Amino acid sequence: MALQSLIGGPGIDRVGVWLEDPSSGENGKALFRGEVWDQDVGDGPEEWTRLSADAPLPVELLGGGSFECALDEPQAGPILGPLIDLHRVLWTPVARRKVMRGLVMLGTRRKNGALPRHLAENLAAELGTLLELEEAWRLASSRKADLELWTRVRGLLKEKENTNRILGQLVENCTRGLANGGVGAVFAAIGESRTVSPGGFESSAAQLSIRAQSGDENWVKRVNTESLRPLWQRALMEGQSLGGETAGAFEKESSRIIVVPLRWGSTLSGGLLAGFSKLKANLDSLERLELRGELAAEILEQEFQKNRELAQLRSKIALLEAIGDAIVLTDKRGCVVGASGGARELLGKLPAFSGTDCELRFAELFRPRDWETMENWALGKSARPSEGVEDVVQAELSPGIGVRATRLAASGEEVVAIRLERRRNVAAGATERRDGTGRPDVKSVLPPERSCELRMLQAEELATLVQRVTGIAHELNNPLTAIVGHAQRILARGAGNPAAREIHQILEQAGRASQIVRQVLSSSREGKPERHLLSLNELVERTVDLQRANLNGFALHLRTDLAERLPRVDGDYGQLQQVLINLLQNAQQAIELSGVGDTFGVRTSTNDKSRVRMEVWDNGPGVPVEYRSRIFDPHFTTKPSGIGTGLGLAIVSAIVGEHGGSAQLDCPPEGGSRFIVELPAAEEELPGTTFDDKRVVAFRATGVGTAAPQGTTPRILVVEDEPTVANLIADVLRDEGMQVDVFKDGQTGLIATQRNTYDLSICDLKMPGMDGQTFYKELRRSAHPPRAGFLLITGDVVGGGTQEFLRANSLPYLAKPFRVEELTAAVRQVLYGNHHAAAP
Predict the structure, then answer these.
(1) Share of the chain above pLDDT 90, in %
(2) What is the rounded average pLDDT of the residues 439-451?
């Protein structure tokens, strides 16, 4: 069509029209394809239809306008085939957005022949417009395909489709051709970031765990090699998409790599990598990849949240096992996800519910004739009673036992709690039970559903109390830090201080208070059990110090008798400490409530190297014979109503059993009681530690620049919302000859880094507004990071979230409350390295 408009034009002997072919190229260079027509021979040779971008074309075309020249003079270099036998030629570029996308050529064999420039330029303009329309159509098609992909993935997420399957569809779409709604990549892979170094995060050892891949497998195999790893590490560290050129054996297939960080909110979960030829790697490709990266990040985040909810559900299921009432938990699907111990007794053998697969539907617990009724009731499809009226249905279990099913008020949107009770002639289903003292148990005389709800409420109140205690313990670290630091500074002013003895006592008592605070934080930490080699003697000493704080006002004696050379055990510190706390509290309460006895204690021993024994004893009233066989049963208690939950010893038995040990009660004839816990001794020195009580921990931080040279004055930025702690840090470092700027919040600290260059930033982890984690991330993204690095101070190093953040970013930290020498050692260690840091 384009040629036809020029053929036969005045003075035209040869016409050529070429347009860029986006699907082909040589070594990343553009290739033009088109047609050539000659007045004498008609269609030109086949080789004239291809025109490479590095052909000897006039440089004047780069200016964007037409260029006419005579060919009478001999050419110094090779001549283009379409120019043979011509005396004059007119070149006109076909441009789109000021980029040459094609060429129009008019030629004549007459020396002084005139060529119609206006015809060539009109044709070039029309072709440019057509290219614009084609590009707009291609862009609209891409956006339509992206919208369809987004809708499909959102639907799969809503339907809880398998995560790996959805990720597989995303990467397959990345490598699909543009004409089929894809992005046109040579390969694509979605990887999650993980740490392979057990001692802490090292950027050089970081790897991507490939979750889904498509296209050339050779490139996917190179993701964690030096050819690609630096690029995606930098993209993940900077938190923005990056592209890079590649070279090597596979250069022809993929010459440009794009990495899109997978970020959802503040969580960075990995990266999407894709390889393109140079011609196909453009801004549109990046935007479309980022859309797929956003979808992948949401998928991984939903999977993470789902796994966390499952972990919480499994924890609830484990607690549910200890409940004597018949309680069944169901999900939105009507599947049973948990059952109490009482439910297992009533229903017989049940599977070990995982919380994921639907091993058993609630309706299947009943006779077939009741399946439809119970299915609709469990799914909430039946008519619901008015507010304030119990939602109850009656049916028969598979064995033929009639039951009354009640939807409990503790039910939520995700999980429904259903109580099952045998139908019998008892008013309102009430029962009466007596506790170990023979008095009526308040919980047992309530209707069973109210008793269960009361226990759930008590559990929630206990969790709230733990959170409050943890918060108080954390806040105590700030004044303790100031007390210890200022007391040390007073002592450091010289000998002869008349108050030196009292100040030493202040330091001693502050150290004791600090130990108690760390124990409280450790005991109340959240997270999954972690097994490490630990010393039972050390655990006893720390726990006894904590328990002694509860003896104020009571004339009781707490003693310890610890065996020497006691073998270590492999266990979870927090769980085993909970065992000891429960046993010590039981012993103390037995004496206080009965008025018999005045001493209790702990002793450790070992009969041989295979078992380690921990014994908690008291000289109280002991346990009556008729109660000893049930002492470890859930909700069984010998205490008066209103004191305790009856779960303490059941928890002891469960934890010890999980550690491969045993818990027994022994009541000597002379009185008192002994609870004996035996645990297997560790067979080998497994990696781990007894308890992470290191006061200063420093990692080799990634991206650390050059510290201030020795002999110069380092400039330190301190961000701390607690004025007493901030002033203490500033005073100590100024005494060391350093220049210190103090700010009470992260926002003003960030502004200061734009005006000044700092060698080190010291920041509190928990602050109102912008906390330490956010401050660190913003500082890393800024153009003014500290030259030497970053030092965090925190009052809760045992918290799961705190540990994860510190390890993931390879950050050194200092635990509150800290001593003056610990602060100076940590600062010098980060500034100058280990060999310049004073020993704490």
Answers:
(1) 11
(2) 45
Residues contacting 409, CB < 8 A, separation 6+: 453
Distance CA 246, CA 228 (A): 8
Residue pair 322/455 in contact (Cβ under 8 Å)? The answer is no
The whole-angstrom separation of Cα 149 and Cα 155 is: 10
Q: Residue 739, SS3?
A: strand
Strand pairing category for 569-572 and 599-608: unpaired
CATH class of the 160-308 domain in this structure: alpha beta
* Structure confidence at residue 249 (pLDDT): 40
How many other CB atoms sit within 10 Å of the CB of residue 114? 12
- Collapsed DSSP state (helix, strand, coil) of residue 260: strand
Least confident piece of the model among 145-159, 216-230, 395-409, 436-450: 436-450
Phi, psi of 160 (to 5 degrees): 60, 40
pLDDT band at 251 (very low <50, low <70, confident <90, very high): very low
Q: Which pair of structure tokens corresponds to residue 156?
A: 């799969």
Residue 429: what pLDDT?
A: 33
DSSP 139-189: HHHHHHHHHHHHHHHHHHHHTT--HHHHHHHHHHHHHS-GGGTS---SEEE
How far apart (Å, rounded) are the C-alpha atoms in residues 134 and 131?
5
Distance CA 377, CA 372 (A): 8
Structure tokens at 314: 């499994």
Exposed, middle or buried by CB within 10 Å (0-12, 13-18, 19+), for 73? exposed
Residue 438 has pLDDT above 60, yes or no: no
Residues 299-325 have pLDDT tens digits of 888 888 877 777 766 666 666 666 778
Residue 447: asked if its preceding bond is cis (omega within 30°), the reply is: no
Domain with residues 3-137, CATH architecture: 2-Layer Sandwich (3.30)
Using the CB atoms, write b or e for 515-526: b if 16+ within 10 Å: ebbbbbbbbbbe
Which 3-state string (H, E, C) describes 303-369? HHHHHHHHHHHHHHHHHHCCCCCCEEEECCCCEEEEECHHHHHHHCCCCCCCCCCCCCEHHHHECHH
Rounded distance between C-alpha atoms, residue 676 and residue 26, angstroms: 80
State pLDDT tens for residues 346-358. Answer: 887 777 766 566 7
Q: What angle do CA 306, 312, 314 make, to 5 degrees?
A: 100
Q: Which residues contact 50 (CB under 8 A, 6 or more apart)?
A: 31, 32, 33
Where does 696-836 sit in CATH, by number? 3.40.50.2300
Q: Which of 826, 765, 823 is nearest to 794 (CA)?
A: 765
Which CATH architecture best describes the domain 322-446?
2-Layer Sandwich (3.30)
pLDDT, residue 616, reads 94
Question: Architecture of 532-680 per CATH?
Answer: 2-Layer Sandwich (3.30)
Token pair, residue 565, equals 């050379």
The CA-atom distances, in angstroms, between 192 and each of 158, 205, 224, 273, 396 are 22, 14, 12, 11, 49
DSSP state of 255: -
